[in-house]
Amino acid sequence: MTTIPPEKLIDGKAFAEGLRKQIAAEVQVLRDQHGIQPGLAVVMVGEDPASDVYVRSKCKQTGECGMLSVERRLPADTSENELLLLVEALNKDPAIHGILVQLPLPRHINADRVLNTIVPEKDVDGFHPVNVGLLSTGGQALVPCTPLGCSLLLKDRLGDMSGMNAVVIGRSNIVGKPMAQLLLKENCTVTLAHSRTRDLPAVVKAADIVVAAVGIPEMVKGEWIKDGATVIDVGINRLPGSAEGKSRLVGDVETAEAAKHAAGITPVPGGVGPMTIACLLRNTLTACKRLHGLED
Ligand SMILES: NC(=O)C1=CN([C@@H]2O[C@H](COP(=O)(O)OP(=O)(O)OC[C@H]3O[C@@H](n4cnc5c(N)ncnc54)[C@H](OP(=O)(O)O)[C@@H]3O)[C@@H](O)[C@H]2O)C=CC1
Ligand SMILES: Nc1nc(=O)c2c([nH]1)NC[C@@H]1CN(c3ccc(C(=O)N[C@@H](CCC(=O)O)C(=O)O)cc3)C=[N+]21
Q1: Helix extents (H) in 109-234
Q2: Which of 250, 154, 278 is closest to 209 using CA atoms?
Q3: pLDDT of residue 153
Q4: 212 three-state secondary structure
Q5: 161 lies in the same domain as 235
Q6: Residue identifier of the C-alpha nearest atom 1 of ligand 1
Q7: Residue 233 maps to which CATH number?
Q8: Disulfide-capable partner of 70 in 41, 254, 285, 295 (CB 3.0 to 4.6 Å)?
Q9: Ligand 1 center to residue 102 CA distance, Å?
Q10: Quick check: 184 and 154 in contact, CB under 8 A?
């Protein structure tokens, strides 16, 4: 664990626990009043130890919230066509309201084709072009879980974000771009930085809100952070550990140094990661309600 003074800690783990309790209560109501149980299917192709941890904790938490959890593990040599057939079957399955295909997929499979085959109504990752479009035009989208989790933490900490300068580092479809959309929705002035950005330290120094989603361990230096800024560290980087071989997780931000300047900062682990899973459950509940024509 890194050293963040308690008043500066943005505790994603605790926030996610609260969120899961709310979700479990709503799931109970759905069951009691409508006889409906939300169902989430997680599809994983091939073996990947890092994904494995994540998939297992998703399935466990889905069950704990009272939802149906279906795990489909396919061998690494599964053809694209077989995977597409599975997705189509899940699209039609009335017990399933959310479908998540774990990324990355093996190289012989076209990930876009697979993601675009999931019906938008069950796309709890929010990666389908219809949901991407709805998010950017202000419609009723399913929002990608990681940016949604970051946005909930920011709103809880900062309240009204109107007029704040927000910098998102990283422009991936799964984190950076949707994060920028959500901050724009909150009336921030948004800068989307990436590997071609000139003078990143100066860009970060101007920011009231910094969201780092790069995938390079501790690349955002503490001294880049403006005094009083709020820092959300999305990075999950597994470093080879000590002699015993235990690996260590670090984010994209130099946490302890950044905490000297920031007013609030998320740790890794225990920050954005748990929020991602809680938001996946929330999206599954949302998808279930919408598919049954119930209010959100
Ligand atoms: N906590 C969670 O729940 C999740 C965590 N993650 C973690 O978040 C991190 C980012 O993930 P993801 O978005 O998928 O990553 P990608 O690899 O898809 O994207 C990384 C982005 O960082 C940019 N980048 C790379 N090098 C630099 C640099 N030197 N300066 C500025 N920008 C740079 C890239 O720019 P360019 O586009 O120009 O190449 C790219 O836009 C990873 O550590 C990942 O493990 C991801 C998903 C969920
Ligand atoms: N279709 C798809 N959707 C995703 O959302 C998706 C994906 N594929 N592929 C992989 C990335 C990564 N990701 C994480 C989620 C939670 C934690 C998490 O809970 N992390 C814990 C630590 C877990 C540990 O100890 O390894 C924490 O930060 O505290 C991490 C990473 C979702 N992703």
Answers
A1: 111-117, 129-137, 145-158, 176-185, 200-205
A2: 154
A3: 98
A4: strand
A5: yes
A6: 273
A7: 3.40.50.720
A8: 41
A9: 17
A10: no
92 in catalytic set? no
147 Cβ closer than 6 Å to some ligand 1 atom: no
Does 160 share its domain with 267? Answer: yes
Give, as one character, the DSSP assignment of residue 103. S
pLDDT at 1 over 60: no
Q: State which of 122, 157, 181 marks the end of a domain.
A: 122
- Catalytic (active site) residue 125: yes
Dist. CA 101 → ligand 2 center (Å) = 13
- 294 is a domain residue: no
Final residue before a domain boundary, out of 88, 122, 156: 122
Residues of the domain holding 105: 35-122
| Predicted pLDDT at 51 | 81
Question: How much is the mean pLDDT over the chain?
Answer: 95
Cα–Cα distance measured from residue 166 to residue 159, given in angstroms and rounded to the nearest whole number:
14
| Rounded Cα gap, residues 97 and 1, in angstroms | 36
Q: Percent helix, strand and coil across the chain, each rounded to 5?
A: 45, 15, 40
